[in-house]
Design brief:
Length: 703
């Protein structure tokens, strides 16, 4: 069997709670690229199955559409003819089926002999555990590490132990369903004798603890439990169906990825940011993901709001970039965070999460009418807006600014948080404190939200917040607008100088209605020009600007969530056709990415017949990349749901290109669940409600 050994194997991921697994397409785990991680620690760095001394030949591999089961189909290369039972290549079919449940990996390995003679199959497993912290995997160097204790072999497998500098002993075990033929240090070998047409099964488990011996019934029971958990997560919220099979596949894959990344916490469902680097609660990512899916699944937003309120900062900490009222940026559970070698155990170095938290609360109330949850959150919302006002009051222009309090934290604290993402027109990096343009839009939305909420409980404060919102809007127009470019600049630096650079950041202002109509129109024109729009999505930095680089992380690449926010803003500014174009570009990019949108991809212009260019270390899956599909669709359909008024508003709906009808199934409107149907009718789109025989849900359509 010919194989191309130079072609790198693809990687596949599984996740359950605070554990995730990255393996190659054969199913093997070999550090540094792969591993099994629990609580930000790699508890298994090598789990490599060989046939004798060779890796099996790959036939195919995939993760099932529900993201529960990884399945690899393999076969043997020619095995050494030790005796008459040596097997020529391609006669043994090996199936590896694995899943995660309760932060433990379960695997079934089935070997089938399709030859006419008995075959002897030596299965060798090389095993190791390095217990490195996720930040070490990402490149951080530590002055010292804890102590690896010698692995302990048993009749059924290996146990690994590590004594951390934080005094915590971390363990992992790899167990098999039968004793090995030849146990060796770091290796277990099983020799299977297969009669013609016969098969054998081997079960393995990997986890932080040694549990019962792996067995067929345990595998089946845990597999059923894993599927039940995933089905529960996937059943939340409304579903999208259409006349387009490929489009539906993209919607289903995006929904499955969000279900995979969502963990059930005490406060409710919470989407972890992405695998492998960010499989943990992030503030900004979760808020934006909740905004993207709010129209379909408000329950996710409720879980995000409650978790972030519970972890709101109560005191000052320069090391953590914390201040009373601030909403967290990131939380980690690894050894380096526990020892405070890094501040990310519970880190607050994000300037935008706090205003976005408030904006999400207002959007959640408008969507659901759930006053009880907003009352529960009210103290956190007050503390959050007070932090915003304190920071703005300390700035000469009364803008929401950031400047890291410790050199261990993030230098840039907006969503583009790489070190070179904020710069002047000549390429010079900006010095802080920095006021990002989109952050002022978020703060404007937060103040307006508090003004709306305050009308219920504090009319004097409501008027104050409304006034501050208008003052901030005026300040943004005065300091950020560039007359010569007809666009908003990226940021103001610590000297008040404008970073006169055209970036996608300005597109976020449209989402929150800050620009006046004529300036919103000018921004829309530029976002859809070739300088920004690649044909697949919107570049983070316009072509021709300083530091533009289509293969950079933040300075010219395409981020699906960023394009979706811009599309939503364009639709709100009345340019719905642009949103439809962006949806089409994103969908066609998704087709090339096997229907799974990556965290980002390269910002090269689209050329006929060529696919989008992948960014090599992008997270896949990523929560706000998966959620972007639903935000784009909402932007095209122009849907807003008012549960308190039991009304669905549809404004100038457009269908995706080539799609004749779209149905939003099981859409919650107050205590009712209905189907919202859009259908092409000549040059217009008709919308109507099904499944409401008493007519309790009102549909208001504007064309």
């Amino acid at each position: 069997m010919e194989t191309n050994e130079s072609v790198p194997l693809a990687r596949y991921v599984l996740k359950d709670g605070d554990s995730f697994l990255v393996a190659n397409s054969v199913g093997n785990i070999v550090a540094p690229a792969e591993g099994f991680f629990v609580h930000d620690t790699r508890i298994v760095s090598r789990y490599e199955m060989l046939l004798g001394e060779q890796e099996p030949a790959l036939l195919s591999s995939a993760v099932t559409q529900d993201n529960v089961l990884f399945v690899a189909h393999l076969t043997n290369r020619a095995l050494s003819a030790i005796d008459e039972m040596g097997a020529p290549e391609g006669l043994i079919h090996i199936t590896r089926s694995r899943f995660l449940c309760r932060q433990r990996m379960f695997e079934r390995i089935t070997c089938m002999n399709y030859g006419n003679l008995p075959a002897r199959l030596p299965l060798r497993f090389r095993l190791d555990a390095d217990f490195v912290d996720m930040f070490e995997v990402r490149g951080s160097r530590r002055p010292a590490r804890g102590r690896l204790l010698g692995p302990e072999s048993s009749e059924w497998g290996y146990a690994f132990r590590y004594e951390g500098l934080d005094g915590v002993q971390r363990t992992s075990s790899v167990l098999f369903s039968r004793p090995p033929a030849q146990p060796e240090p770091g290796c277990m070998e099983f020799v299977l004798t297969l009669a013609p047409g016969a098969s054998e099964e081997l079960y393995t488990e990997i986890g932080a603890d040694q549990e019962a011996t792996p067995a067929r019934q345990r595998y089946r029971d845990e597999a059923s439990e894993a599927r039940r958990h995933m089905r529960r997560r996937q059943r939340r919220g409304a579903r999208v169906s259409s006349s387009g099979p490929l489009f539906d596949q993209w919607m289903r894959r995006s929904r499955s990825d969000l279900a995979l990344l969502t963990s059930e916490l005490e406060t409710g469902p919470y989407p972890y940011a992405g695998i492998p680097w960010f499989s943990t609660p992030f503030g900004r990512d979760a808020v934006i993901t909740a905004m993207q899916t709010l129209w379909l699944d408000p329950g996710l937003a409720k879980g995000v709001l409650r978790f972030l309120a519970r972890h709101q900062a109560k005191e000052e900490s320069p090391f953590l970039d914390a201040a009373p009222g601030k909403i967290m940026h990131e939380t980690r559970k690894g050894e380096m965070s526990a020892l405070k070698e890094l501040p990310f155990g519970l880190y607050y170095g994000g300037v935008d999460t706090t205003p976005l938290f408030i904006a999400l609360a207002g959007a959640y109330l408008r969507r659901t009418g759930d006053l009880q949850t907003i009352k529960e959150l009210w103290p956190a919302l007050l503390a959050a807006v007070q932090w915003i006002e304190r920071v703005c009051d300390a700035d000469p222009r009364r803008l929401l600014v950031y400047s890291r309090a410790s050199d261990r934290g993030l230098a840039n604290q907006g969503w583009k948080d790489s070190g070179d993402s904020v710069f002047h027109a000549d390429g010079r990096l900006a010095e802080g404190p920095i006021a990002l343009v989109e952050v002022q839009g978020y703060a404007y939305a937060a103040l307006r939200t508090m003004a709306e909420l305050g009308e219920r409980w504090d009319s004097r404060a409501s008027a104050h917040w409304a006034r501050r919102a208008q003052e901030l809007r005026f300040t943004v127009e005065r300091h950020f607008w560039m007359d010569d470019a007809a666009y908003y600049g990226l940021a103001l630096d610590g000297d008040g100088a404008l970073c006169a650079v055209r970036t996608s950041n300005a597109g976020h202002l449209l989402q929150f209605g800050l620009p006046p109509p004529e300036r919103a129109s000018a921004v829309a024109d530029q976002l859809m020009s070739p300088a920004f729009f690649t044909g697949w999505g919107i570049r983070t930095v316009a072509r021709g600007e300083a530091r533009f680089n289509p293969i950079s992380y933040h300075n010219g690449s395409v981020w699906p969530h960023d394009s979706a926010i811009c599309a939503s803003g364009l639709a709100m500014a009345g340019v719905r056709g642009a949103a439809t174009r962006l949806l089409r570009g994103a969908f066609e990019a998704a087709v090339h990415f096997d229907m799974r949108m990556p965290e980002l991809f390269c910002g090269f212009a689209r050329t006929q017949g060529a696919p989008p260019v992948a960014y090599p270390v992008a997270c896949l899956p990523q929560a706000w990349a998966a959620g972007s599909a639903f935000m784009l669709l909402q932007a095209c359909l122009g849907v807003e749901v008012d549960s308190a008024g039991k009304t669905i508003h549809v404004h100038r709906a457009e269908l995706p290109f080539g799609i004749q009808d779209v149905t939003i199934n099981d859409l919650a409107v107050g205590d009712q669940r209905v189907d919202l149907v859009f259908r092409s009718a000549g040059n217009r789109v008709a919308a109507f409600v099904e499944g409401d025989p008493l007519g309790t849900v009102s549909l208001q359509v504007r064309t």
